[in-house]
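Lab manual, section 2.4: Encoding a predicted structure.

Procedure: take the sequence of the chain (118 residues), apply the prediction step described in section 2.3, and record the output as structure tokens. A sample record is shown.
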Amino acid sequence: MNFVLNQSKIIMKMNASNNDYDTLSEAMNGLKKLGYTYEFDFKEGKLKSNDGGKEFEKHELKIIEIHRFEGMSNPDDNSILYAIHCADDSKGLLVDAYGMYADPQKTKFLEGVEILTE
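Recorded output:
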């Protein structure tokens, strides 16, 4: 299977850990238990770890899982959680909105990251 990351057309939830998460916080807690300890942010064209010590270019990353969550009461509360494995074997999570509130620069960056499938 081939997957193309496109914020406006993410239809499928990839779930390599075989966990069905109902909420974003549940997914983050579950994935942290599986070793995804960093919380990444996208700044200055790179993925940066929450401790500020690591920076990654897109060619150093692989997306392992994608989980999409829709807000129950407010459609503006839509989010996507990416579980990411880095070239130095560190693992972490990146959260973004999707739809009109998505960060366009973060989306463009992630479009160039390989998505692993089962």
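Check your result against the sample. The beta strands are 38-39, 41-43, 46-48, 55-56, 61-69, 79-86, 91-97, 114-115.
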